[in-house]
């Protein structure tokens, strides 16, 4: 059961609400708006009117999406939506599918275009002082498009603001009714003036205030936690040593002090010497008391013979909760009162990619993978969740951690997923000595990255164990040993990523070191796939 946080919207009429129709870029719209210091959040595109109005938004953005407005199951806003926005002076911006939906619902016509527009396109501004501001008339700009349908007849009261060089309507507005539409995606960096356009739209057109600050998030969250947790209630925090749970723990500790009980689980899927390293840094740098539970046999026992990535993730999510329940029992025996709450360092991307909970705003998108702390949770769990970072992206969490004086060494750590090496040993993780081989390879790779001084330029780096054997020749002997892969990426938020361009000499040294010192490995590959099409982890 999840606790609702005030962060879900201040409800002060200075919020941007995004109705999600399943676009790959919905989260980016949120990010861009928050980057402009305006609070924004996503709800499902088919949310009820009550859900929408409770946030008291000043602007509602209708996102893009994979559907065509002509499809029988095309998602749409609820009955009464258009009346609500008109009566309350709410601005509406449709992006791509969102614009097509707005056009169709207001009586215009959307057709399947003769040509589709995917990728970089040029648009030309045709209307003075429109969505793009005063000076833009006749100006052209490069934008990112991804659509097949197009608006061919605009509803009454609308004007064309810009067209693509192919003649497709690219921007529209009905100033009087506060309806706006963009056929392209201003939220992606390839739309080179997208941020400028959003800034002009939010502040000059919608009159929003740039008043959302990380300090406010901190104060609001502390207040909610203090109000929610009773005076003598105790709380458990799942602490992994990673950025997110460390920041979450520090925040909750500031709110309730020593009634917070942190627990670090050794699930047998940790990296080389991780348990000792994490426990000693908790003690020396964080000054938070942490209980370490060794549950490696329990996790590995449950994972034996399991090869399906989603099954592995669900097993791990369930086992984590099992351990936390056991810890709650121990505390009850000691303190005479059972903790009711569990703090997790869940982030927005964990929720976006996980199994979408109903009404979460993701019901029109695909489940990419079940993050153990969201989609992997058992349905019948009793502990109530406190997830103060649930609507934040990683870089926002790092910023919050800075305000909380969390040591930089913690904030700069590369992310490490809760399911750990289970999603980096492909197939059965208990097979042979796969985990041990992977730990050694990973350690050599990460140490070399640190020695080279490039750790902070990389978002995440790790090794993957491949369950295949290849033929090699080592010391004049034929070997039939395992292949491993190295992966290093750059990213802003883990939602999209590019591979890191290493110097050849660096790679040459690392590969030699791995093959010379790790028994059982005779081949090293480098993963140079971006996300998309791949994901960061291999499973
Ligand atoms: N070994 C562990 N012991 C206890 N809790 C864990 C462990 N691994 C993960 N968790 C819980 O699951 C949450 C999600 O894990 P995730 O890896 O996304 O975050 P993190 O470890 O805090 O940060 P990072 O993404 O930087 O690794 C954590 O915030 C934490 O609450
Ligand atoms: O705590 C976590 N529990 C999980 O189940 C999980 N799966 C992926 N990740 C991390 O999320 C980021 C994006 O990873 P993917 O592109 O593989 O989805 C990367 O940083 C991954 O390491 C997880 N973190
Ligand atoms: N990216 C989008 O929102 C696409 C909208 C619609 N599916 C089209 O192809 O036109
Ligand atoms: Mg982690």
From TrEMBL:
Which of this chain's residues are annotated to bind ATP? 240-246
Enzyme class comes to ligase
Coiled coil located at which positions? none
**GO terms for biological process?**
GMP biosynthetic process
InterPro entries named among the record's database cross-references: Class_I_gatase-like, GATASE, GMP_synth_C, GMP_synth_GATase, GMP_synthase, GMPS_ATP_PPase_dom, Rossmann-like_a/b/a_fold
The UniProt entry, under PROSITE patterns, shows: GATASE_TYPE_1, GMPS_ATP_PPASE
* E.C. designation(s): 6.3.5.2
Cellular component (GO) terms are:
cytosol
Q: Does the keyword RNA-binding apply?
A: no
Q: Which positions fall inside the GMPS ATP-PPase domain?
A: 212-413
Catalytic activity reported: XMP + L-glutamine + ATP + H2O = GMP + L-glutamate + AMP + diphosphate + 2 H(+)
Q: Which UniProt keywords are given for this protein, alphabetically ordered? A: ATP-binding, Glutamine amidotransferase, GMP biosynthesis, Ligase, Nucleotide-binding, Purine biosynthesis
In Gene Ontology terms, what is one molecular function of this protein? ATP binding
| Pathway note | Purine metabolism; GMP biosynthesis; GMP from XMP (L-Gln route): step 1/1
What does this chain do? Catalyzes the conversion of xanthine monophosphate (XMP) to GMP in the presence of glutamine and ATP through an adenyl-XMP intermediate.
For this protein, the record's HAMAP family field holds: GMP_synthase
Protein name according to UniProt: GMP synthase [glutamine-hydrolyzing]
* Species assigned in the record: Zostera marina
